[in-house]
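BUG: 3D viewer hangs when loading the predicted structure for this chain

Environment: internal workstation, default settings.
Expected: structure renders.
Actual: progress bar stalls at 90%.

Input used:
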Amino acid sequence: MKGISFLRMNKGDFSIRQASWQQDRIALRRIRDIVFVQEQQVPRELEWDQQDATAIHFLAEDDNGNPIGTARLLRSGQIGRMAVLPAWRSRGVGSALLAATLARISESGGPSPFLNAQTRALPFYQRHGFQVDGEMFMEAGIPHLRMKLGSHD
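Structure tokens produced before the viewer hung:
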């Protein structure tokens, strides 16, 4: 692993960087708490798990350094916990976070990326080359589908 600053993507009014769970935990948790726990009513005990300590995290920040989005990458290749604050949605933050995770996988030669997408987010992931890979299931009371990165036929 190259350290927490291997990647910094600037997209105009925000940037993406690899984060450290130890150093950036408060910012990462704040975003996920707002999006998943408060907005989507995911129980706190389901949002937080042991995998955060070993995952690779990405943090989107506005030009003033305020946290606006996050994503995490597990050693298995699973991308998850993608969350963007409401005021920053539809501005490319989610796409930039996803690009950062995919770049990290590509750079490290890691396992094939996959994710469990909320069904309402399917069009977003499909635009980025992900395809449904399985049946719908419920997670935290929200319908999800497993998706994997694949080629278009």
